[in-house]
């Protein structure tokens, strides 16, 4: 058997992950054609590279089909119930920083805190006859956060992309999304609630608690982790 | 573990017991229109119920409980008074704990009766209590109506009372609001700044929430800032009320004491006392029955009076074996102009069999 390492299959996340491992003496690379998701590992034996969409890596870790995987804290916590029983963080990789936040129009000068959002949601529902809509793709995290902080009278609406535009398009009144610099938010005349930080996320190397290993795998894992820390 | 057919047989025997009390058997559909449930419970219900959809009827939910369809059915064409019973599956989506069942059998009893509410409360409780006879369970009772009366009686603005009332079921925000109204926590800096300037809006106005709504809220915030702080006495009375946790006779005497300084709760306390008598008349040992003023605050929002629950004394890991309460306001919300006092309770035969097997 081999230790299977899952890495995002494209883009900046893949490149930065490759760089991070290279700096620790392990060369990861894609093999074959541009379109083929095959990879090779040099610098350690017994490790194979699996290229996957970052969004699928949490599920693969939880199912034990990969032993290690690189993906964001946000995706792990959104997609896995009881995530800490299924996976364990090994290293934070210090890139892919993103905060999951709640944002509202800048013009809402009366709304700066969750307490304000809750009061505005109540008044909005009275006036419009439906709940204040928050557009997001992080349903579970946002719902848990708003429940624990006691915000009521909102509804989550699904938005898988261009979430910042939903308010202008009047399909939502507020959004919950990830942001790194806040530039897109500002460009869309939105502001972050002062206590609206749901989660700080960054690219993280995770270890599956569910994947089977034989003695050789365990030795490989120990050697690999020793070289990474 | 009991088999499914054993659980269904147990549920059928409970339903027969309720039927013998004069209840009509009802079988609401498993698929329920999502809109009513969402309107009542908001986003919380999405975390708890399975949603499905088709192109014609839109979103449907696998029934998360029976009470709502039974109330709708009764309000549409029920007899008056009426008693109903049912047994069957309910479905609960689980997001956090994989050990909790996502599908289980419930048997229940609901009473719609304009007559003596204390007697109806006692009827439901005593029936369920009797059906659990011999099992190691402990009962807790409470009354959301007392809390609502206490909030309604506070010497403060209508908008503050409405905000507290809205969050009775969210103890954390309720407490935060109370602390701010009492002047214990300062106004957030952003709000102080907003009220200090003219609240000019420089950013472009986007979205459905209008300038008028923003200005209305600023005016409300200004009015609230001018409102005197809630007195320390009132806050400590309210907190003392929330802390009442005693056997029924002791709780009632504590509540009577509190009512001297909080006359607004007097009627609600009298209702608890009347209920105690009705329960005793039905043979319930009220001397040892617990009453907790905070009981029921974190569960479903529709209870607005009597609430009760039976937990397994020897198995704290098990969910509540039976629960119920009074939901007069729900009949008003779903009644399209009509309303009727209503109280009911549900039992989980699967858990009952598990408890029996463990004895």
Automatic annotation (TrEMBL), chain A:
Keywords: Amino-acid biosynthesis, Glycosyltransferase, Histidine biosynthesis, Transferase. The keyword Transferase applies. Residues 54-222 form the ATP phosphoribosyltransferase catalytic domain. It comes from the Bacteria. SUPFAM superfamilies: Periplasmic binding protein-like II (SSF53850). Its EC number is 2.4.2.17. It catalyses: 1-(5-phospho-beta-D-ribosyl)-ATP + diphosphate = 5-phospho-alpha-D-ribose 1-diphosphate + ATP. GO terms for molecular function: ATP phosphoribosyltransferase activity. One of its GO terms (biological process) is L-histidine biosynthetic process. Pathway: Amino-acid biosynthesis; L-histidine biosynthesis; L-histidine from 5-phospho-alpha-D-ribose 1-diphosphate: step 1/9. One of its GO terms (cellular component) is cytoplasm. The keyword S-adenosyl-L-methionine does not apply. Catalyzes the condensation of ATP and 5-phosphoribose 1-diphosphate to form N'-(5'-phosphoribosyl)-ATP (PR-ATP). Has a crucial role in the pathway because the rate of histidine biosynthesis seems to be controlled primarily by regulation of HisG enzymatic activity. This is ATP phosphoribosyltransferase. It comes from Sulfitobacter litoralis.
TrEMBL record, chain B:
It comes from Sulfitobacter litoralis. Transmembrane segments: none annotated. The keyword Plastid does not apply. GO terms for biological process: histidyl-tRNA aminoacylation. Residues 12-170, 218-345 form the Class II Histidinyl-tRNA synthetase (HisRS)-like catalytic core domain. It holds the Pfam family tRNA-synt_His. L-histidine binds at residues 65-67, 92, 106, 110, 297, 302-303. This is ATP phosphoribosyltransferase regulatory subunit. GO terms for cellular component: cytoplasm. It comes from the Bacteria. GO terms for molecular function: glycosyltransferase activity; histidine-tRNA ligase activity. SUPFAM superfamilies: Class II aaRS and biotin synthetases (SSF55681). Signal peptide: none annotated. Keywords: Glycosyltransferase, Transferase. InterPro entries: aa-tRNA-synth_II/BPL/LPL, HisRS-like_core, HisRS/HisZ.
């Amino acid at each position: 058997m081999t230790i299977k390492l899952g890495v995002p299959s494209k883009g900046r996340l893949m490149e930065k992950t490759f760089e991070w491992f290279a700096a620790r003496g392990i060369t990861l690379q894609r093999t074959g054609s541009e379109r083929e998701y095959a990879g090779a590992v040099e610098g350690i034996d017994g490790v194979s590279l699996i290229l996957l969409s970052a969004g699928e890596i949490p599920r693969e870790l939880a199912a034990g089909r990969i032993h290690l995987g690189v993906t964001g804290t946000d995706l792990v916590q959104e997609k896995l119930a009881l995530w800490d029983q299924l996976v364990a963080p090994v290293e934070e990789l210090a890139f892919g920083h993103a905060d999951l936040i709640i944002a509202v129009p800048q013009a809402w000068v009366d709304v700066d805190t969750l307490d304000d959002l809750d009061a505005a949601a109540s008044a909005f529902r009275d006036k419009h006859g439906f709940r204040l809509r928050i557009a997001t793709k992080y349903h579970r995290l946002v719902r848990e956060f708003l429940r624990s902080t006691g915000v009521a009278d909102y509804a989550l609406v699904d938005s898988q992309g261009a979430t910042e535009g939903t308010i202008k398009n009047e399909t939502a009144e507020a959004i919950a999304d990830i942001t790194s610099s806040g530039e897109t938010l500002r460009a869309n005349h939105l502001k972050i609630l002062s206590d609206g930080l749901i989660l700080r996320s960054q690219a993280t190397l995770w270890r599956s608690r569910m994947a089977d290993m034989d003695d050789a795998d365990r030795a490989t894992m120990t050697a690999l982790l020793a070289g990474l820390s | 573990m009991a088999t499914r057919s054993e659980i269904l047989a147990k549920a059928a025997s409970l339903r027969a017991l309720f039927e013998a009390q004069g209840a009509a058997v009802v079988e609401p559909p498993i698929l329920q229109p999502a809109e009513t449930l969402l309107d009542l419970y908001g986003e919380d219900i999405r975390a708890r119920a399975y949603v499905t959809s088709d192109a014609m009827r839109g979103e449907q939910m696998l029934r998360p409980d029976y009470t709502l369809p039974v109330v709708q059915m009764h309000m549409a064409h029920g007899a008056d008074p009426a008693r109903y019973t049912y047994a069957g599956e309910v479905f609960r989506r689980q997001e956090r704990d994989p050990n909790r069942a996502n599908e289980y059998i419930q048997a229940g009893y609901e009473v719609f009766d304009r007559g003596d509410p204390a007697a109806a409360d006692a009827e439901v409780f005593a029936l369920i209590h009797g059906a659990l006879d011999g099992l190691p369970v402990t009962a807790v009772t409470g009354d959301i109506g007392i809390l609502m009366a206490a909030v309604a009686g506070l010497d403060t603005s209508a908008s503050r009372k409405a905000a507290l009332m809205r969050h009775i079921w969210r103890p954390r925000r309720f407490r935060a609001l109370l602390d701010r109204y009492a002047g214990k926590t300062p106004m957030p800096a952003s709000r102080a700044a907003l009220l200090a300037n003219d609240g000019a809006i420089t950013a472009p106005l986007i979205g459905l929430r209008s300038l008028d709504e923003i200005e209305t809220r600023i005016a409300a915030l200004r009015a609230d800032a001018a409102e005197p702080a809630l007195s320390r006495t009132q806050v400590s009375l309210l907190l003392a009320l929330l802390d009442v946790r005693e056997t029924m006779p002791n709780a009632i005497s504590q509540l009577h004491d509190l009512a001297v300084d909080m006359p607004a709760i007097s009627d609600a306390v009298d209702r608890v006392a009347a209920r105690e008598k009705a329960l005793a008349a039905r043979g319930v040992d009220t001397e040892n029955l617990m009453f907790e003023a905070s009981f029921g605050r974190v569960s479903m929002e529709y209870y607005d009076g009597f609430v009760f629950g039976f937990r397994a004394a020897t198995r704290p890991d098990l969910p509540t074996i039976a629960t119920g309460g009074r939901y007069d306001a729900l009949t008003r919300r779903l009644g399209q102009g009509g309303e009727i006092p209503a109280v009911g309770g549900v039992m989980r035969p699967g858990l009952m069999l598990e408890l029996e097997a463990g004895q």
